[in-house]
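Quick start: what a row looks like.
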Amino acid sequence: MSKTYFSKTHEYVTVDDNNIGFIGISDFAQHALGNVVYVDMPETGDDVTAGEDFGAVESVKAASDLIAPVSGAVLQINEHLIDNPRLINEDAMANWIIQVELTDPSELDALMDLDAYKKFCEEEGAH
């Protein structure tokens, strides 16, 4: 069974029982960005490190770095986003950006579950 975690920089990681994580941006983030026009992704085989950027999302309004919520080796990139980055606007949670094999599953403990993330977004939106 998979479980989804969120970071304070609005990325999510959905992790399955084999410590494989699918990383993308949250629905909150895609709404804030507006129409996504380009996604910069790492290469398959690259390593990503929790708290460090691994690419960027560009929209008609802004460009935003993608910050890895967990560390791991990139197993796959979502090639559909190369030709159609707006898939993120259609369904951010279904259109992950990269798939990684987690190197330290304990990093998940520093992330939020959906309820905590919703509360975080409400508080952030109130400022």
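That is the whole record. The mean pLDDT is 96. The longest strand covers residues 53-59.
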